[in-house]
Amino acid sequence: MTITNKKLLAFTGAFVPFNDTVTLMSYKHLRVLDHQVDVVALHGKEDDSIVEELKNDPYYQKFNILYVASYDKTITGLSNKNVVMGIYNIIKYIKGCLKQFDKENYNIIYSSSIPSFTHLAAYIIKLKHKDVHWIAAFSDPLINSPYKKDDERIKEYNPIIRFGFFLYIFIYMNDIYEKIAMKHADKLVFISEQQRLFMLNNAKVKETANLIAKTTVVPLTYIKEWMVYQKLLANSSRSKKQYPLIAAHFGRIYGLRKIDVFINALIRLKYKIPNLHQFIVFHFYGEVSERYLKRIKEENLESLFMFYDKVSYAEANDKMINCDILLLFDTITNKGEQQPFLPSKTLEYLLLRKPILALTQNNSPAFELLQSYGHNFCTDKSDEMITYIMTLIKDLPSYNYDVSNLDNENVEKIV
């Protein structure tokens, strides 16, 4: 490990040990650089398991985190409806970014969305300092995101929640900032080829050739020194072969992560096998859309499901180790549309080399990843889902493939 005196300033919204897909992605992007890294961040609830990992991560010593506001008081939602306080803290955050930049001689800045206002802070600096090298990283795309226009989901909201949904999008997922980053940043970092193509197609920037030239794809990666990843690799292909099999899902089921095909398959399967719950049970850790909870109850499928709140990063990985099948529900879009969204748990699933019961489409990053590692999957037909569930009940396949290309230290560096 080499760490020089070169310094980089990062704007990431929250940051580790806060447990979030974007914060982990940003840390992994910055971790392997030979720069000292100052991070302007919002302070949120720390994940104890990530705290422990960082204590033993030699790269973490080069990070200096500067907290300028509370995450919970900046990011509004159902638990925090104080929009005025949220906007005040956004302004405070951006001012904190500018103030910190003026303190040091930084020649590189890094911004990541979501929240999208991190790009605004970087853009203001770029306007004043043309020679600064700006790296903009993206997770879920905001420009023309189908999640923003999911009519089926929006219809479920009452007028107040609906207003809050659109207000949230305007404040935290405003694609204006993303367009600015696409146009003015010196380097653009994506997590998949599908995401890169989607965002390039929707950016509507005239200098397309120049835009393509400054892009790179850095996949989701694991840190081999972290115990949570070591445990996943050490317990790969574990199969207890004891009924009922446990199939587990981690994360939110909402919006375009539609599981209608899955539920339809279970309705038909339970009709054929009334004691299906003796062979397989589905555990969900995290939010599940109310309409699916209601339908599960109406169709008398409750014996097949167990629902839990979101768990910590380490606990989620332990649950993955102790289950037999991993559930992956992808973003489902209309046929012919580009699908740039990648469930973050796909990485951990691949490390475990366990059977994955996936509902996906051939236009998605998850489809391509699963296929490249030899996994089976289901598309948009309940017949496929029924067949695959029955196959898994009868025999759990094992996998043995190389994941070294997903090692954090082996992927292309952003600088």
Describe the protein:
This protein has 415 residues and is α/β, with parallel strands linked by helices. It contains 17 helices and twelve strands. It has helices at residues 21-31, 48-55, 71-74, 83-103, 117-128, 151-155, 159-172, 175-184, 193-203, 208-213, 227-234, 260-272, 290-298, 313-322, 346-352, 365-372, 382-394; strands at residues 7-13, 36-43, 63-70, 108-113, 133-138, 187-190, 215-217, 245-250, 280-285, 305-308, 325-329, 356-359. The strands form two sheets. Strands 3-2-1-4-5-6-7 form a seven-stranded parallel β-sheet, sandwiched between helices. A five-stranded parallel β-sheet has the order 10-9-8-11-12, with helices on both faces. The protein is globular, with a radius of gyration of 22 Å. The mean pLDDT is 90.
Provide a short characterization of the protein structure:
By secondary structure, the chain is of the alpha/beta class. It has helices spanning 21-31, 48-55, 71-74, 83-103, 117-128, 151-155, 159-172, 175-184, 193-203, 208-213, 227-234, 260-272, 290-298, 313-322, 346-352, 365-372, 382-394, and strands at residues 7-13, 36-43, 63-70, 108-113, 133-138, 187-190, 215-217, 245-250, 280-285, 305-308, 325-329, 356-359.
